[in-house]
Design brief:
The complex is a heterodimer of chains A (about 270) and B (about 110). Chain A is an alpha/beta fold and about 270 residues long. Chain A is built from nine helices and twelve strands. Chain A has a domain of about 190 residues: TIM Barrel. In chain A, the strands form three sheets. Chain A has an eight-stranded parallel beta sheet. The two termini of chain A are about 15 Å apart. By secondary structure, chain B is mostly helical. Chain B has one domain. Chain B is built from five helices and no strands. Classes of the chains: A alpha/beta (about 270), B mainly alpha (about 110). Chain B: This is SCO6045-like C-terminal domain-containing protein. Chain B: It holds the Pfam family SCO6045_C.
């Protein structure tokens, strides 16, 4: 009884991997990569790496993934960052772009990482206003991703699923669901994965992230530098029981394994999808 | 203004995570420490990648010295990672942890 819901949020993408300069040749060589994602901040629109031009030449979609818009940040949006993302999207002829439901800067400081938001109506209002402002500047649809947390904010008024569902309803953004981040939050801050998946408007699902991590002192660290644990594939399976995802992408950012190991992880993803 | 209230919450959280500020009310202090350590480790990894010369010269001293530098110099939102790594290099020299190299580290490499 799979495939209950058809998705209306954009193109069929297939199975992909995060393109990184350290594994550019690997990504080119892997036989079954249907699409890739690239960290937008690491690119210049006028000077794309030759590896990405090669992939584009083969017709492989390249989706810019931003990490620095700080869309949940309460300070004014830095429109130069949005304009850069827009320029990269046009240079890559990308069908969509993405960033995260998080903040990275506040009070003059830069966390250097994706910080979770307070799940309050005030914080949601800030996020919605920033997302709408960014969407006006972007040439293609914006997908937003749930982040992994090691701590939780006090005084939550909404669950993670409710927070994201309301964000989608008010901005018409697409969803990038990271099931590794979902696992992290289930482990670290008590998010209920089944309730999360049941609450999300999965017809707005753009694609899915999977990644590896490591358990340390009772907490799950979403490192993107370890093998993908089975529990993450299990959550991908749970999601697939609810919706046919348009795409699934493996993120690996450090301690790169052999080509064969990455190919095996992609094959494991395909096995869950089949 | 709700935006101002959220801005103040986020700023005090980053002070706690990046600059050894007090844990804001309602947060689990242990978790804030874990997150602070994770952020410090990430910043350190980026610095190692950008300035492998510093990592080589410092060896085992890199971790403790970077931690000392980082807590006293939380990364500003207008500082790029490369600048942050170079600032660490300058801090090491000015605090006598390293002697200034013959070829100044701030000169672009060929």
């Amino acid at each position: 009884m799979r495939r209950m819901r058809r998705v209306s949020a954009g193109p069929r993408l297939g199975v992909g991997i995060g393109w990184r300069p350290e594994i550019d040749l690997t990504v080119e060589r892997l036989s079954d990569v249907d699409f890739v994602e690239v960290v937008a901040e690491n690119l210049m629109a006028g000077d794309l790496p030759s590896s990405l031009r090669l992939l584009r030449g083969r017709g492989v979609p390249v989706l810019p993934h931003a990490v620095s818009l700080s869309l949940g940040g309460a300070e004014p949006l830095d429109m130069r960052r949005v304009e850069h993302l827009a320029a990269v999207a046009e240079a890559l002829d990308a069908p969509m772009v993405s960033d995260h439901v998080c903040f990275v800067r506040a009070g003059g400081l830069d966390a250097g990482h994706l910080m979770p938001l307070p799940r309050t109506r005030d914080a949601l209002a800030v996020l919605v206003a920033n997302v709408r402002q960014a969407q006006r500047e972007l040439p293609v649809p914006l997908a937003l991703e749930n982040v992994a947390a090691l701590f939780d904010w006090p005084d939550a008024e909404l669950t993670e699923g409710q927070f994201l569902a309301e964000l989608v309803e008010r901005t018409d953004c697409r969803l990038l669901v990271d099931v590794a981040n979902l696992h992290a939050n289930a482990r670290n801050i008590g998010t209920d994965p089944a309730a999360f998946l049941a609450t999300l408007p999965l017809e707005r699902l753009a694609y899915v992230h999977v990644a590896g991590g490591v358990e340390r002192d009772g907490l799950y660290h979403d490192t993107h530098a370890h093998a993908m644990p089975d529990v993450v594939l299990d959550l991908l399976g749970d999601l697939c029981a609810r919706v046919d995802p348009p795409g699934v992408l493996l993120e690996r950012d450090d301690d790169y394994p052999s080509d064969a190991d990455l190919a095996a992880e992609l094959a494991a993803i395909r096995a869950v999808l089949s | 203004m709700t935006r101002e209230a959220v801005a103040a919450q986020q700023a005090s959280l980053l002070q706690a995570l990046l600059a050894d500020g007090p844990t804001p009310a309602g947060f689990d202090a242990d978790r804030i420490r874990v997150q602070a350590r994770a952020l410090l480790a990430k910043r350190g990894r980026i610095t190692r990648n950008l300035r492998p010369d510093l990592a080589d010269e410092l060896g085992d001293r890199f971790g403790p010295l970077f931690a000392e530098y980082a807590l006293g110099h939380p990364k500003r939102d207008d500082t790029r990672a490369r600048q942050d790594a170079d600032n660490f290099g300058a801090w090491l020299v000015s605090n006598n942890h390293l002697v200034a190299p013959r070829r100044p580290w701030w000169r672009p490499r060929r």
